[in-house]
């Protein structure tokens, strides 16, 4: 389920919760919230960057142990075998 970010439309009328923004875990098909769950003021969904990171699961070690081969690109048409 994605984590959606919301913030107050008018920070002057909002509570501390929606003034600084808050996150909600929602289903993909959930409608966007329009009111703060604490004070009832108008809120809007914020555009946020997706979380993209390197895998910490040891994928390369497991692939090597399973007999797979990995190549690293050195230049145009040039590759070096890593394992």
TrEMBL record:
Residues 1-48 form the Putative regulatory protein FmdB zinc ribbon domain. InterPro entries: Regulatory_FmdB_Zinc_ribbon. It comes from the Bacteria. This is Putative regulatory protein FmdB zinc ribbon domain-containing protein.
